[in-house]
Amino acid sequence: MRGVLLRRLLGTIPLLFGISTLVFFLAHAAPGDPALLFLSDDSDPVVAAHLRHNFGLDRPLHEQYFRWLARLAHGDFGHSFAQKRPVSDILMEAVPNTLLLSGVSLVLLFAGGIGVGVLSAIRKGTWLDRITTLLSFFFYSMPSFWLALMLLLLFSYHFDWLPASQMHSLSFQYESLSWWGKLGDRIAHITLPALALSLGTLAGVARYARAGMLEAMQQDFVRTARAKGLPERTVIWKHAFRNALLPMITLLGLYIPFLISGAVIVETIFAWPGMGRVAIAAIFQRDYPVVMATTILSACLVVLGSLVADVLYSWADPRIRVPSDSRVAGTGGTPR
Amino acid sequence: MFLHSLRRQLPLALGASLILFAGCGGEKSGTESPPAGHGAAGGTMIIGMDADADALSPLMSSSSFANDISGQIFAGLAKTNPDMAGYSPWLAESWEFSNDRKELTFFLRKDVYWHDGVPFTAEDVAFSVPLYQSPEIAYGSMRWLQHITEVTAVDSYTVRFRFDAVYPYQLTDANVATPLPKHILGDVPIAEIPTHPFHRNPVGTGPFKFVNWEPQQSIELEANEEFFLGRPPLDRVVFKIVPSQTNLVTQLRTGDIDFYPKLRPEAYEELQDVDRLRKLQIPSRVYYYLGWQNASPFFNDRNVRRALTMAIDRESIVKNLVKGRGEILDTPILPFLWAHDPDVPAIPYDPERAKKLLSEAGWADHDGDGWLDRNGTPFEFTMKTNENNDLRKDIVVVVQEMLAKIGIRMHPETMEFTVFIAQTTGKDFEAMCHGWKQGSKVDLTSIWHTQSINDRFNMVSYSNSRVDELMDRAVTEIDRDKATKLWSEVQRLIAADAAYTFLFTLDDLYAIDDRFQNVELTTYSWTYNMHEWSVDPKRRKY
Question: Which residues contact residue B140 at a Cβ distance below 8 angstroms, ignoring those fewer than 6 apart?
Fold first, then answer.
């Protein structure tokens, strides 16, 4: 198992290298001169030349690339053109915020989605099933920006229950709150963005969970369990549910990267200070060091997401667990 | 609706430099003074911002919001008057030129302290100017300081600038270099200045002190108790960063944001029913135009360009696309500036005369297909503009229709902003829809001088030797009356040559909670008198 993991991790290195090289040259090939974007005034070509020199943009592209690579090897992402400070500082501020939002959304969407799915599978054909099915399709088909705006209008404006933006109240108010007050304040602020980010996918997960559960309940082993006279609860939770969970793990692997990259719109609408906003601003400002850093980071997270899914998979399904003496990755066998 | 005041008696010349302007927006002038009433000090104002600042020091910040904020933390030697035609004392109580006008001496106030308590002196000024001139720092307006050869602290409160040239904007240029604290940055090697933490944790001499900055969230300032004109009435100003316009408008409605300085027209419209908000419309420094590539065989004839302008119904554009929030413009110098000539003859909307002029130039429908042609070449071209600016895209489409009516086929083409700038400054276009933001100097040379054709901003390749000669004189003319006459003639010639079809100036739209008093918004800057803003004490929220 450890050997497989190690090999998977090593395998990502050429992948990340390829991605970063491609993005580096693509970003630099796109038209637009960062130096000109920072000159707000009756700009002098001399000043622009100085700026380009300061940014290192006056060197040949391949030289810029190798310098960037050499610095990256030392863990140095360079300095942001726009913010004139180390890119690592910017990432250290933004990444935890993004992880917090996507973490909460992930828990919400799997706990909620599986709960709703299983419930409607057990109650198949009842009004509860029909309503959840209807709602699932409703939320699933709704674009996240529209959902975000509707949540905003409904809960911030119309009912005025929840704050419309930021991660917490403005610091002059926030700092005077008690520890519990601060916690409550943060929960209130994360509610809308986390809902906007998770509701659509939650609905999707619910559909998968329902289908998986229905399928599992028709399997022979469930019939056997029932025939043995086991209580219905044991049959559902212990036998059917566990097997229905397997496809959920595949979904997890698919959604982790989406939650990280897909948060851009939600971050923008709710003024959440995350990585998506940093990345977008950097692209428009041609802030190459930041563009590169955010790209590499997202690529890492995507790779990590699929790795986590694989590990969970082999943990959950003994049939694909790799024998410790085997050196072959066990990807065969489709779990049912 | 246009409330700007023009005070012409002020002593010094200003220039209008020009800034490539990206979206729709920018600061403007026009003033609005609610009933003055000196409420007791106290209260907080929450101001919405749609993007984070890049840095908060005048040396390093380049975004316009960041400059608005750093302008509250830092103070300059003199304060630009709202009409941009003169200056009022600020850190300097007074100033005087030597007889040969090559030396400018500032006499500083003696009661000014940096926010950390250290006295502000002439040494700070003498230390700061070379930073703004340093190529290693590459300050955006570095060129403005090119004629300053030396800055000396004569004594603690007297500082002398030496110039190698005499020209009308010497005070303007000396004033560009907002003083920075020598006691903080004095020992920092110049190569480390651009990335020094000071730019994100600034210490200034302005009316408000920096408190904290949470990236992408908020920037908080508090009243400077020691401010040299007295403590500002507001306790605190918080800039709340909310990138979504919809969210900003929602929070203006709910009262979570008190003021937003850059409303889009549709948001402004939407807020009309909120009585608690004062809605203000103030002429901006931005104007829109259509640029015709004078080097192109279609547009190298002045009469053809005039005909195109006659074919475009600017009144209908302002009425329908700008919803009246703008004013038709006929000259490259905006109405709020001293050098503006209000009597420049306008080219009227007259499609019939346009057709006549075109046929005199050889453009007629010779082949009977309904479109104009000359020697077998149809009058057909592309007009470029940028994405992310719906107004410009709408204009191009409307203009396409208007030109079709006189038999000219135009194809709109939109592209990303940076690409658009690269192509237009590279003269890679036949026609374009673009905008300029008027800077603080009246100086048209970078756009209209023949010598600027090889530079970036004379994008349309305009060349008129008489205009060149007049401008060369005007930019060095110290006497304001003489300069005004020269600029007036320049404007008439440029307008008549129709290298641009000037469209309109756009208004800036503001909404502010009406519990705030003494708020004066100007074309020059909406932060102009923030140190005097106050809250009605009976309606204070926080």
Answer: A38, A39, A40, A41, A43, A47, B62
Residue A248: per-residue pLDDT: 83
Q: Do A36 and B421 touch (CB under 8 A)?
A: yes
- For residue range A73-110, list pLDDT tens digits in order: 888 888 888 888 899 999 999 989 998 998 899 899 89
Round the CA-based radius of gyration of chain A to a whole number and report it.
25
Residues of chain B short of pLDDT 50, as ranges, are 1-39
Tell me whether residues B220 and A170 touch, CB distance under 8 A. Answer: yes
B255: left (phi over 0), alpha (psi -120 to 50) or beta: left
Residues 6+ apart with CB under 8 A from B248: B48, B50, B242, B257, B260, B267
Evaluate whether B495 touches B324 at the Cβ level (below 8 Å). no
Residues 54-93 of B with CB under 8 A from A: 54-55, 60, 62-64, 67
Residue A233 contacts residue A144 (beta carbons within 8 Å) = no
pLDDT tens for A150-201 read 999 999 999 989 999 999 999 899 999 999 999 999 999 999 999 999 998 8
State the greatest distance between any 2 C-alpha atoms of chain B, in Å, as a whole number.
81
Task: Provide the mean pLDDT of chain A.
Answer: 83
CA distance B312 to B354: 10
Which helix (H) or strand (E) element contains residue B213?
strand B208-214
Q: Which of A35-44, A138-147, A291-300, B340-349 comes out lowest in average pLDDT?
A: A35-44
Tokens, residue A264: 């851009």
**Torsion sign (Cα): B206, B212, B214, B219:** negative
CA A4, distance to chain mean position in Å, is: 25
Other C-beta atoms closer than 10 Å to the C-beta of B462 total 23
Contact list in A for residue B448 (CB cut-off 8 A) is: none
Picking from A190, A169, A180, A182, the residue whose alpha carbon sits closest to that of residue A106 is A190
Cβ neighbours for A273, distance < 8 A, ≥ 6 positions apart? A93, A94, A97, A166, A167, A267, B214, B215, B216, B217
Query: Which of A172, A269, A283 to mutate: most B Cβ within 10 Å?
Result: A172
Q: How far apart are CA B49 and CA B66, in angstroms?
A: 10
Q: Please report the ipTM that was assigned to this predicted complex.
A: 0.85
Answer yes or no: are the C-beta atoms of B435 and B502 closer than 8 Å.
no
d(CA A327, nearest CA chain B) in Å: 48
Concatenated DSSP letters of A30-74: SS--HHHHT--SS--HHHHHHHHHHHTTTS-HHHHHHHHHHHHHT
Q: What is the chain A residue with the closest CA to B142?
A: A47
Give CA–CA dist B285/B337, Å, rounded.
10
Please report the number of interchain residue pairs, chain A to chain B, with beta-carbon separation below 8 angstroms: 153
* Residue B266, CA atoms < 13 Å, CB-side half-sphere: 6
